[in-house]
């Protein structure tokens, strides 16, 4: 009866003072009534939480962080899981390898981003090792050092929506010895390891007991891969040696050699030919040995074996440090997931144009771990024709296409690319190419669009693509309620109505290639190419603006100023 009396007093308190917060009233109540009313208060809060959709984000790279920063709808409860509790600005990793920028200047703790959100968000430093789409769970294990006690902890996280943004790992192409003997350049830890190894090579080569041949081997730095990462690292290393280490180790500068190996015909083959030619010419002037048509077949602890395409012979190259900066591959957990959902023959996860993993409606994949499987026009040609042919006459006039032209171009982006290639103003201009364009039947329609699918291209695995995908998906999540009521996407050619959202479209904003010596090459939209010292300042400005916080902007800019004033730090820390 005493507990019941306490409950009555608590109830009167709520009625007499409705303006007081519940928790304040609770602490004015004594006895068993406190526990009773307190339970009710927290039960109500729990029911509110249950209404929120649980979003689990795997990864804190470009895609995952962009999604997290742009997600604003408070109706979601977000759980971020990653073995790294920070976001790294990876385009500046080559600068970290030589001390131009300090490692901590390019990283932002993920909890700094989470604490600014206006919804429930939490972070778990752990590694996802299995995805269970049947029960909507991700299985995780901790990554903290074992000396903390307790061993590896395993746990599961439930989700309503899963965002896979785990990035990719370096691809060795099953080349023997790469994992054991080469350095990669994918993570901050990789850059720090390279920096220490470079200094180790110089310190060891300076010992009096080292022979001249051995000194040459130790100071031979080999970079595998002529893409942006490999080229920028080779340029950074050359500047580090020329501007800083040559002054500290004057007796060793004559032994230093930097070699860049590329299996193709040219370096930077994704850039304009003018940039490629300038880069190759500059590397030649700087003394960087460029070997194209050289495919690495084996890496030992002291030598690299390459197969020369021009002669077919195998050449052995002694080296002191090897940096593997070519190719990306899927992580083991992603490969296991692909087998689970029947995508065994693919290199990365396949998604639709809305970034949903094929076969999993509530699972999304972004960034380097996925690619958009664009639907071909010829696969849907009959359905497209029938959507336009509302009268079922079997033939179409120009006016019949008016209502579906925009939807066709939006649903199949290769159509726009084909029109630009053929220098056609619009879709109507393509139809006018028909011999008898007054009426077009299905066979003529197929003939007109037969070459359109040749313009289908996979998006590059770059930070720019991943960031745009994360921002796009967050915008879809923010507007899901509105778009459910009023869909804004193109027609569903294989169904009825419209898609809820516009499909993802990548907008290329340009790309940079720092070439050392305060010179950078830039290829910007509109086929605009700029090379030289002025472009270096543009590179500084763009990269500083793209950093995720004012904290990292200040740190990176101060590092650039420090390097200009005092040089790069050669301490082995």
Automatic annotation (TrEMBL):
Cofactor: FAD
A family per Pfam: Pyr_redox_2
EC number: 1.6.5.9
Subcellular location(s) of the protein: Mitochondrion inner membrane; Peroxisome
A GO-annotated cellular component: mitochondrial inner membrane
Domain EF-hand: 376-411
Taxonomic superkingdom: Eukaryota
Reactions catalysed, as given in the entry: a quinone + NADH + H(+) = a quinol + NAD(+); a ubiquinone + NADH + H(+) = a ubiquinol + NAD(+)
Major subcellular site: mitochondrion
Organism of derivation: Capsicum annuum (Capsicum pepper)
Keywords from the UniProt entry: FAD, Flavoprotein, Membrane, Mitochondrion, Mitochondrion inner membrane, NAD, Oxidoreductase, Peroxisome, Transit peptide
Taxonomic lineage of the native organism: Eukaryota, Viridiplantae, Streptophyta, Embryophyta, Tracheophyta
PANTHER family from the UniProt entry: EXTERNAL NADH-UBIQUINONE OXIDOREDUCTASE 1, MITOCHONDRIAL-RELATED, NADH DEHYDROGENASE
Topology term for the membrane: Peripheral membrane protein
Protein name: NADH:ubiquinone reductase (non-electrogenic)
Family that this chain belongs to: Belongs to the NADH dehydrogenase family.
PROSITE patterns given in the database record: EF_HAND_2 (PS50222)
Broad enzyme group: oxidoreductase
Residue stretches spanning the membrane: none
Any GO MF annotation of the entry: calcium ion binding
């Amino acid at each position: 009866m005493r507990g019941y009396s306490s409950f009555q007093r608590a109830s009167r308190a709520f009625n007499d003072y409705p303006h007081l917060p519940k928790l304040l009233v609770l602490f004015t109540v004594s006895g068993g009534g406190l526990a009773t009313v307190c339970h009710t208060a927290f039960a109500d809060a729990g029911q509110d939480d249950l209404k929120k959709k649980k979003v689990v984000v795997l990864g804190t790279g470009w895609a995952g962080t962009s999604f997290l920063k742009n997600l604003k709808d408070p109706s979601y409860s977000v759980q971020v899981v990653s073995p790294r509790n920070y976001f790294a600005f990876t385009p500046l990793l080559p600068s970290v390898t030589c001390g131009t920028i300090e490692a901590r200047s390019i990283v932002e703790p993920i909890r700094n981003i989470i604490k600014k959100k206006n919804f429930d968000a939490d972070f778990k430093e752990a590694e996802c090792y299995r995805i269970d789409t049947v029960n909507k769970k991700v299985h995780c294990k901790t990554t903290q050092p074992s000396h903390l006690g307790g061993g590896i902890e395993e746990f599961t996280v439930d989700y309503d929506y899963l965002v896979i943004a785990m990035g990719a790992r370096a691809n060795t192409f099953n080349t023997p010895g790469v994992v054991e003997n080469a350095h990669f350049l994918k993570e901050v830890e990789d850059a720090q390891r390279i920096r220490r190894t470079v200094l180790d090579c110089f310190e060891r080569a300076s010992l009096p007991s080292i022979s001249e041949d051995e000194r040459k081997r130790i100071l031979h730095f080999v970079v595998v891969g002529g893409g942006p990462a490999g080229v920028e690292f080779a340029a950074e290393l050359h500047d580090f040696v020329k501007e800083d280490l040559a002054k500290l180790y004057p007796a060793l500068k004559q032994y230093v050699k930097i070699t860049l190996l590329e299996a193709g015909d040219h370096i930077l083959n994704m850039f304009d030919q003018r940039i490629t030619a300038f880069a190759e010419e500059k590397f030649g002037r700087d003394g960087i040995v460029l070997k194209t048509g050289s495919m690495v077949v084996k890496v030992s602890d002291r030598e690299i074996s390459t197969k020369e395409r021009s002669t077919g012979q195998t050449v052995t190259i002694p080296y002191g440090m090897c940096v593997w900066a070519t190719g990306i591959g899927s992580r083991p957990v992603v490969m296991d997931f692909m087998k689970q959902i029947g995508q065994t023959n693919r290199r990365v996860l396949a998604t639709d144009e809305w970034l949903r993993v094929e076969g999993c409606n509530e699972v999304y994949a972004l960034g380097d771990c996925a690619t958009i499987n664009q639907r071909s026009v010829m696969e849907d040609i009959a359905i497209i024709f029938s959507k336009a042919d509302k009268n079922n006459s079997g033939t179409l006039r120009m006016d019949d296409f008016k209502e579906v032209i925009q939807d066709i171009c939006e649903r199949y982006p290769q159509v726009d690319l084909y029109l630009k290639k053929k220098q056609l103003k619009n879709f109507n201009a393509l139809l006018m190419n028909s011999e008898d364009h007054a009426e077009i039947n299905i066979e003529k329609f197929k003939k007109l669009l037969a070459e359109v699918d040749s313009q289908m291209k996979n998006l590059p695995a770059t930070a720019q693509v991943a960031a745009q995908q994360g921002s796009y998906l967050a915008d879809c999540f923010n507007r899901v309620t509105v778009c459910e009521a009023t869909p804004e996407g193109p027609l569903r050619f294989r169904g009825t109505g419209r898609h809820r959202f516009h499909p993802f479209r990548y907008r290329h904003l340009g790309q940079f290639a720092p070439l050392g010596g305060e010179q950078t090459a830039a290829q910007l939209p509109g086929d605009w190419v700029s090379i030289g010292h002025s472009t270096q300042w543009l590179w500084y400005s763009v990269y500083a603006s793209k950093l995720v916080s004012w904290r990292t902007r200040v740190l990176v800019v101060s590092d650039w100023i420090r390097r200009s004033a005092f040089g790069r730090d050669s301490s082995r820390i």
